[in-house]
Task: inverse folding
């Protein structure tokens, strides 16, 4: 999470739809682009805003996986195969989590 100086206080007005404008200084600090998603992190009585970087993180994971496979001389997975493997692993993890919760 990127932090601005603690003394940095900025104000924005919320619309009737619950929308606020993120001040330009904060958008620049977080390197936010138009249309990019942000995450709101609850910190007790305060909320932090951070860039939602899951797509960038996934791309980095894919690059690292390809490099590891090339290093081990295994045949490289296509982007589609890698995406499928990630989806399957995520589904398996979610199923395990729900099964644990059902046992409680």
Result:
């Amino acid at each position: 999470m990127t932090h601005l100086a603690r003394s940095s206080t900025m104000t924005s007005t919320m619309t009737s739809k619950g929308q606020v404008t993120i001040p330009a200084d904060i958008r620049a600090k977080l390197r936010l682009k138009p249309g990019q998603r942000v995450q709101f992190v609850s910190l007790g009585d305060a909320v932090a805003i951070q860039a939602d970087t899951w797509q960038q993180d996934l791309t980095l994971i894919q690059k690292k996986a390809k490099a590891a496979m090339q290093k081990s001389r295994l045949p490289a997975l296509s982007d589609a195969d890698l995406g499928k493997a990630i989806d399957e692993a995520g589904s398996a993890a979610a199923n395990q989590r729900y099964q644990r919760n059902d046992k409680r």
Q: What stands out?
A: Strands lie at 38-43, 46-51. The two ends are 34 Å apart (CA to CA). The CA atoms of residues 66 and 72 lie 10 Å apart.
